[in-house]
Amino acid sequence: MTLPNKLQEIVDDIASMSREEKLETLIAYAESMPDLPVRFQEERSKMEAVPECMTPVFIIAEKDDNSGIIFHLDIPKQSPTVRGLASILTNGLNGCSLEEIISVPADFYLPMNLQEAVSQQRINGFMGVLAHMKQVAVKVSSE
Fold first, then answer.
1. I need a surface site. Which of 37, 58, 59, 134 has the fewest CB within 10 A?
2. What's the pTM value of the predicted model, to 2 decimals?
3. CA dihedral 48, 78, 120, 19 (to 10 degrees)
């Protein structure tokens, strides 16, 4: 399985962690996740919702100067696990090409053994976020 370099580094790092370290890392990712840029805050109706998550998650993307894709997510701060999981994806995929993003397999997370730290429901939501990020990437690439 070939992943974008940044995402592969994250997977490798988390795979080697204990349950407690995984939880601490998710919290750190959640805290480092930037707020939705002001220019998108009034455009929630244009954002892709992720119904697989019980927490409200909305995604929008734009192309960067190098034709890479940058994702912006709107997730409540009071949902640190969801924010942490989503932040793993944005940190691993922001700046990647459409081809790199859509080639990420749905089960890429398995080596991280996330089930040690989060529920299956959260993992299902995590996979939903990835699926919707792929859809948004296709849309923004065709604009």
1. 37
2. 0.94
3. 130
